């Protein structure tokens, strides 16, 4: 599985289903970083703490 291509820093919502069938929605975006981009999934930390999961 690959992440979708994004062309705007605000990105797009990304829906992911876990092994239990629960849907999670994260914001897949990037920050310009010198001559490259730093890609992030926003909302991951709060979602994992809500589900009592550990990384």
Automatic annotation (TrEMBL):
One of its GO terms (molecular function) is DNA binding. Gene3D superfamilies: DNA-binding pseudobarrel domain. Keywords: DNA-binding, Nucleus, Transcription, Transcription regulation. Signal peptide: none annotated. It comes from the Eukaryota. It is found in: Nucleus. SUPFAM superfamilies: DNA-binding pseudobarrel domain. GO terms for cellular component: nucleus. This is TF-B3 domain-containing protein. It comes from Nymphaea colorata.
